[in-house]
Amino acid sequence: MCANVLDNVSVFDECESDPCQNGGTCEDGSRKYTCTCPSGFSGDMCETDINECGSTPCQNGGTCSDLENRYRCQCKRGFAGMNCETDIDDCSSTPCMNGATCQDATDSYTCQCLSGYNGTNCETDVDECNMNTDSCTDLQLCINTPGSFKCECKQGYRMENEICKDIDECSEQSSGCQQNCTNNDGSFNCSCSGGYNLDTDGISCKQDPALSELCQNASLGCEQGCRLKSGITGTIRHTTDDVECFCNVGFRLDTNSKDCSGNRSVFYSKTHFNLHIHRTRWHVDRADVR
Ligand SMILES: [Ca+2]
Ligand SMILES: [Ca+2]
Ligand SMILES: [Ca+2]
Ligand SMILES: [Ca+2]
Q1: Which of 18, 53, 91, 272 has the least CB density, counted as fewest CB within 10 Å?
Q2: Per-residue pLDDT tens for 115-141?
Q3: Which domains can be identified in the chain, with CATH numbers?
Q4: How far apart, in whole angstroms, are the C-alpha atoms of residue 290 and residue 277?
Q5: What average pLDDT does the chain have?
Q6: 0.90 exceeded by the pTM?
Q7: For residue 131, how far is its CA from the centre of ligand 3 (angstroms)?
Q8: pLDDT at 26
Q9: How far is the CA of 26 from the centre of ligand 1 (A)?
Q10: Distance of CA 208 to the CA centre of its chain
Q11: How far is the CA of 175 from the centre of ligand 4 (A)?
């Protein structure tokens, strides 16, 4: 009897009721069973899903989801990687412009602009002229440039030793004045000899008709022009003794008191080249007619 009972016990299969959960493998023993659990499960009957998030593997604020034998991290914006361990390089698309330095931050970046630029991406040129942050003097015009500005001398001035100085248009013979030139700061004035009036162009001189007649009667044979002698004004009731020959700007009256000589090469090299030639010819023609 006893032997039979013992036999019955020893042959009873404890695994028959399939006690191991979650795919655990059951091993029958004497009055017991042993579960061998698959990875990710524990407990006598493999009933416990091991929490792989228990070790808080997700970094930088990532959210951990426990799964079978593994976990998944949901990363915060700006981070990547299995454990959200990587701060994404937000500078990798080189968003900063015009030579700016990019500094990576969390899900963002900052640009350190070179002087002369601003804006989030340093995309905007600073208009120093408009903002009055330029260093141009009163004699200079401010010209805005990308990233900077430049100062150029105003009309009538020229840079000399980094200072804008008045151009002496008279001594440089660039004024275009037909007869007399007076330099002033930033410009010049043309004037005419006696018997001539300044024309509407402000540089050429028109002979008064009365003087024209007087000069013809005087028959001086002037190469370039005939005028009232200095100190004599007006054009009426003068005698032929009141007129003399004179030469245009750039020429000098010869000792014969009628011909003109001058350094034509210098004269013609000036900016009002065409104007001068034109006026000179005009006068020469007039002289020839006389
Ligand atoms: Ca798990
Ligand atoms: Ca970043
Ligand atoms: Ca600028
Ligand atoms: Ca001047």
Answers
A1: 18
A2: 999 999 999 999 999 999 999 999 999
A3: 15-49 (2.10.25.10), 52-81 (2.10.25), 128-164 (2.10.25), 194-289 (2.10.25.10)
A4: 20
A5: 85
A6: no
A7: 10
A8: 95
A9: 21
A10: 55
A11: 9
